[in-house]
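[09:14] KT: can someone run the structure on this one? pasting the chain below
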Amino acid sequence: MTVLAILNPHSLLGDEIKQELAKRKGLWSEVRLLTTDPEQVGALTDFAGNAALVQACDEETLHDVRLALLLPGGKEQGQKPTGLPEDSILLVVDPTTVWPNSIPAVAGLESDSVAALSGSVLVSPSPVVILLATLLKPLKELRASLAVAQVLVPASTLDQAGLDELFQQTRSIVAMRDEKPTEVFGKQIAFNLLPVSSADPSDLEPLEQILGGVPAVALQVVRAGVFHSLACSLFVSFEEDPGLDTVRDRLEAQPWIEMADAGDLPSPTDAAAREEILVADLRASPNRPGSYQLWAVMDNLTRGGASNVLELVESLVMPAS
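[09:31] RB: done, structure tokens below
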């Protein structure tokens, strides 16, 4: 059995991870809730139905931890917490922080390479990367050469502050009030779309690392005025036309992809709280042989967050024999 630690557990994703980890008692003998922020020491939270205090992250609380999950919110970002044993594995759940020599990992795609690592830093990447890697990795084997993706991300990717600001803006607009908070998004997000600068490499770099640079990916990320779940329009071109049935078969064979019924176009609300990536409208691209288009939606807190983390934990704590 394994001693696990969750560092900085106070967030939407932290709550989701705690809930799922509490259901998988075969993975751990003890779970410690710690913080790298002195102001959070002693904060009351819960785990497995019981009240729990968040303790300081130090040599004493980390001394026999085998696997530490580091979430955003602490004071020591970009470096291993002081006191973490040399042979422990750090799984970072904060793709916005730069971690030199880290390994981005998507469950089901990288399990063979991460199963027996010691003293390593793994990163559970952003929901955008998890979505695109899961869709593109099986198509890489069909010699996909180019992918063009437009991904709409919800307010909850910026945690509770994002949800609160979207709600407050929506309420102000409906009430026809001029004052709308913009501290989180910088502009109005309610009933709106805000493109993310293409100069931000935080999604492309780990995606290229996972895919080995093939296919080449062009990506546009847009913040959407919705509360939960990603939506993606994806175009993929192949060196040789594999045929629609082959593309469909490869996607359906992926464990966490569910193909929607013909004519059904799932929306972000259909993906909310679900484990699966819902894929629909797979079709050949008109006037461009060997190219295909699809639509996909995925919950950012389950499949795009906690589920990926928990399955990586399983592969690290209980590697396949």
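[09:33] KT: thanks! The chain has nine helices and 16 strands.
[09:34] RB: yep, looked fine to me
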